[in-house]
Amino acid sequence: MSGKESDLDIDAAALWLEQHLPGFAGPVQAEKFNRGQSNPTFHLKASSGHYVLRRKPPGELLKSAHAVDREFRVQRALAGSDVPVANMHILCEDRDIIGSAFYVMECVRGRNFDDPRLPELDRETRAGIYGEMNRVLAAIHTIDLSARGLSDFGPEGNYYRRQIDRWSKQYRASETEPIAAMDALMSWLDNNVPDDDGIRTLVHGDYRIDNLLFDENGSACVAVLDWELSTIGHPFADLAALIMQWQRPPGVEGRGLEGVDRSALGLPEDQAFIDRYCERMGLPGIPGFGFYLAFCFFRMGAILQGVKKRALDGNASNPALGLKLGASVPDYASGGLAAARTV
């Protein structure tokens, strides 16, 4: 296929890549991935091989959102580390080529799971997958920022203070109707930010099972995807994001483990996963974990509100799915308030 595939001008992208990416050759076919509500992502099938193109969405965007240049930078910096990432090929920051910045990376073969129950796998493989998720998360948080050229990848100061401020502004900018629980959660977080403990690590920002690729025949993680929200920050936010996801209802939409008999499936309980992470990080435990959990519920709610707004404005990657995801914002707000009550 040539011409245009949804919101990608294939011919323009292919011409630029033939001129700037050594070895790239057309003709090119493009297929849009269903996953990825934020930055549209495409599988490119070219004469020279398979690639993945990830671009900013078209249309008017919120400031600092959809930072494909940062995604490209951090993944290139992590090449050869204990954090598995796709090889980065090239970044195009010239908006005139296809209408926005984009980058092209290796097409990694692997399995992607939407359902954390992993119903298609046996008990042993499930346990291996969760062990890998724990290992890779600790690997992200122990990256030597200076050695990887990432010392300036995020500002100094209290990570949670700036994140709450940022996502509150983003939420207000994309607000479509009043949500009392979200207002209450933002107010509670604003008044309960913990003191800065000086811990600064690389954080992924959206670490969950559907943002990971695993070996086609085993449990090894072969690539961590979707680094749009990555920065230098506080590691407990990544850990809490996983636990938050597991507290959601099971199934294709909730993608959680609420009410699931984890022991029967060979899946770890929340505290067991946290304890193993702490062992890997050399930590005695994590006091006040409810704050980090409440923060993650809030941030995801703000993200999904942005998805809903883009769907209503007509520039979402998948408008129908965007509206469906946006409808869950009140549930995330309620979950955050429940977590806050445990602190």
UniProtKB/TrEMBL annotation:
It comes from the Bacteria. Pfam families: APH. The chain crosses the membrane at residues 281-300. Keywords: Membrane, Transmembrane, Transmembrane helix. CDD domains: ACAD10_11_N-like (cd05154). Residues 31-253 form the Aminoglycoside phosphotransferase domain. This is Phosphotransferase family protein. It comes from Roseibium porphyridii. The lineage of its organism: Bacteria, Pseudomonadati, Pseudomonadota, Alphaproteobacteria, Hyphomicrobiales.
